């Protein structure tokens, strides 16, 4: 059997090896398993997910404001509507005031 060299970051290799050890798989065994599944399924055999990005400044401010409203630190003056007619009347009034 021919061997292939794969470059892998040391930290990634260590963490991967630790997880695979708990599953009874070697790193080489895992790569062979993943490659065989790629051949069988003709697609990557797992979902690829991007890490959640850190919230930007506007999002962080909105999160803080929402928590402050929830805790009663600042008043929740957001209008609430029970039906569409009330909402449309509110929007019409807001538009008339801004014009």
TrEMBL record:
Q: Which GO terms describe its biological process?
A: regulation of DNA-templated transcription
Gene3D superfamilies named among the record's database cross-references: Met repressor-like
Q: Record's InterPro entries?
A: Arc_rbn_hlx_hlx, RelB/DinJ
Q: Which Pfam families match?
A: RelB
Return the protein name. Answer: Damage-inducible protein J
Organism listed in the record: Enorma massiliensis
